[in-house]
Give the backbone structure.
Amino acid sequence: MDAKEYLTDRGYQFTEIDVGQDRIAYEEMKELSDQTYVPTLVAGDEVLANFDTAQLEKFLRAHDIVP
């Protein structure tokens, strides 16, 4: 299961940005996360980069991020 499917299935709202098509967004992602891999999730001041769904689930719980 990918991040988009995981978040959508659980009722999270998010904005998907294709950093492959948006060079400015790509540079911002690099600055925020210190890496160039996707997916990268930014929630407020928290950043989770290059993750799988288990890591995403743990991140959401740790930061009390709910739909």
Q: What stands out?
A: The helical segments are 3-9, 23-33, 53-62. The mean pLDDT is 95. The chain has one domain: 3-62. Strands lie at 40-43, 46-49.
